[in-house]
Design goal:
The protein is built from 14 helices and 22 strands. With 492 residues, the chain is an alpha/beta fold. It has three domains: 97 residues, Urease, subunit C, domain 1 (Roll), CATH 2.30.40.10; 260 residues, Metal-dependent hydrolases (TIM Barrel), CATH 3.20.20.140; 58 residues, D-aminoacylase. Domain 3 (Dna Ligase, domain 1, 2-Layer Sandwich). The strands form five sheets. Strands 1, 2, 3, 4, 5, 20, 21 and 22 form an eight-stranded mixed beta sheet that branches. A six-stranded parallel beta sheet has the order 11-12-13-14-15-19, sandwiched between helices. A three-stranded parallel beta sheet has the order 6-7-10, with no helix packed on it. Strand 14, helix 8 and strand 15 form a beta-alpha-beta unit. It binds zinc ion and copper (II) ion.
Amino acid sequence: MTLRCDLVIRDATVFDGTGAPRFRADVAVEGDRIVAVGDLGSASGKEEILAGGRALAPGFIDAHTHDDRAVTCGPECMHCKTSQGVTTVVVGNCGVSLAPLRMEKRPPPPLDLLGDESWFTMGSFGEYAEALTKRPTSVNTFALCGHMSLRVEAMGGDVYRAAKDFEIARMQDRLRESLRQGAGGFSTGLYYPPNAEAPTDEVIAIAQVVREEGGMYTTHMRDEADHVMDSIRETLRTTREAGTEDEPLDLVISHHKCSMSENFGRSRETLAYMDLMGQDQPVAFDVYPYPAGSTVLMPDKLRQDVKVQITWSVPFPEMAGRNLDHIAAEWGVTRREAGDRLLPAGAITFQMDEADVRRIMAHPRSMIGSDGIPHDAMPHPRLWGTFPRVLGMYARDLGLFSLETAVHKMTGRTAKVFGLPDRGVIRAGAFADLVLFDPARVRDHATYAAPMTVSEGIEQVWCNGERTYTEGHEPSSAAPGRFLGNPRRKTR
Ligand code: ZN
Ligand code: CU
């Protein structure tokens, strides 16, 4: 009997996402699913693609993004991701989510990294889910509900303090409603000034709702520098005490790093501790493949030994892409004064050690997440380059790990940690999220000087069986992405 289907990709080197060794096979797709993997000589497809031994992997899952707004703006806005082979993004990280929050004035930083008040129009998480369902984009979306967004609403914008009991109760109600309406979990960004005022007990009290309703917990920890170990302890206490003794909450530590030169090398200590604690409770983390971070500009946190490049500025948009020291020299002011004048603004800070970045990336618990910030005028190159950089530079050129492992950290592992059924893997029955790439050519071209540059070697990408990217072509208008809802939701 001959199998007839929509698409057959022939003679591919399959990296199935599980980390298992590559194998040569044909892959058949019907509708939104993979229907067969193997020697499909007798099958025929409406469309046939000859892979000629090039790599076929599950579509990449970007474990950490700030694409909350970008996914609502149509498929063209996601070209930065589809061109890397990404088919699913996790939004709502670092305590920052677009919903549920309506704003009448500019949101306090870092909430404004998603945009000004005109973007905060959704009074419930359900509205956000509905927006993505009615007007889909080119990638699937897994959305977290952010602590800061909840705080700004519950505390009437007066967020530079701990929440009172009635405000915590409001946040719990809102989070409960959000988890029921499709939020996949709860995220915090305790590093940022307004949220740093939240004591651990505030976070635990709110996170208990996650235990009741189902979901996960992700955190941009309070400190990623001198007190990184204290922060890991606080985080693990949070998921233990918000969960039950038998079942601590599922956890992702966001963009794990050891910041500032005096902490270089300490990833040995942090990773060993996470491995030890990980024997008794869930511990996972994401990482981006660069030694520089990026977020909103916070002049009072600047240090003279850390190079700073401006990514956007409301009063001085022409300074995007420029070094802060050069701006200060041009203006004849101190660096601090220049930083203050640029606000509100964003920045890239060169504050990590490449050896730590590699050690963290190579660790079996890591997942790849870009942490790209899509609305910056001159963004960090991770927005356009993360996945090809891991495949090309770190796996192929530097041999940090095998290509199988690299793909696993972008697919199967991530799907498992976030609980995404039938994604992140190539097998019959799984969703047809696929990327065809050339392992010999794949590389990132985005740089700090030219960050919005498409990578090379990602040839074709499909999301739910529909093509979303073809190398060398204009951005596709296909919008097969889905809102993935809350896979951990407990139904009673
Ligand atoms: Zn963050
Ligand atoms: Cu982030």
